[in-house]
Amino acid sequence: MSITQDSPTAARSGASASESFKASKERRGAADTSPERVSTIVSAVLKGVHAAISDHDVTYPEFQAAKAWLMEVGETGEWPLFMDVFVEHVVEEVASRQQHGTKGTIEGPYYLPNQVRLPSTAVLPHRDDEAGTPLTLSGQVRDLDGTPLAGAEIDTWHADSDGFYSGFAPGLPDGNLRGVVVAGDDGQFSISTVQPAPYQIPTDGPTGKMIEAAGWHPWRPAHLHIMVRAAGHRTITTQLYFAGGDWLDSDVAEAVKPELVLEPKVDETGIARVTYDFELEQA
What we know:
With 283 residues, this protein is of the alpha/beta class. The chain has one domain: Aromatic compound dioxygenase (Protocatechuate 3,4-Dioxygenase, subunit A), CATH 2.60.130. 29% of the residues lie in helices and 22% in strands. A 6-stranded mixed β-sheet has the order 1-5-4-9-10-11, with no helix packed on it. Strands 2, 3, 6, 12, 13 and 14 form a 6-stranded mixed β-sheet that branches. It has a two-stranded antiparallel ribbon with strand order 7-8. Strand 9 (223-229) and strand 10 form a beta hairpin. The longest helix has 21 residues, at 35-55. The radius of gyration is 20 Å and the shape is globular.
């Protein structure tokens, strides 16, 4: 597989991610952090930057280039993209230290709230000619003690077979391959869709320029995004990957965990089927 391919422009993708983030007050929120903690964290970040400059003899031209790059990231709306790809996985690892139940991982920049609600056995909205191997993900949502969580919401979104997300790429219908599946009284659900493709994060903006300058690759392995909610329980945000897939061992976002890798089996009808259960802890 080549390192880069044609993809939606960073200007479109980054700006859409920024607008989505700014529009969601509950996600943007306020950290209610004390001045003392702000001072501690900001001081630590600055010390890390200072150490990198000193340890690696950063020159004035490199410093000026860094300033120009930071300005371009803001001007193009790529901060959500950059932060979610290169920083969020560490924040999630810190949060997971105090959490139990199904493993979580990063949300990423392509979540869109308020998608269509669907019954417990559902087909995600898709185009009539949607390409890709048919995939059915089934399972149960339950409490840590094994009690089924009736009415739990499985909020699902993923890229298409070209690696593009609806809402962030031109030509895709709104809500394509997105939906909120509501589990039955027994916590069971079944979601039919198509298997997504690996995708590269947009490479024509400042984030892509940084990746190219560093000699890194921009690829993420194929995955399903899942956000599982139930009243009185902690929401789990995770991603499910596919065994044997490209970039699984070198995800640019460093978000893959062994517990989240699926092994679908293709049946006689050509449908890849897999079961995965979710366990939520009480809030």
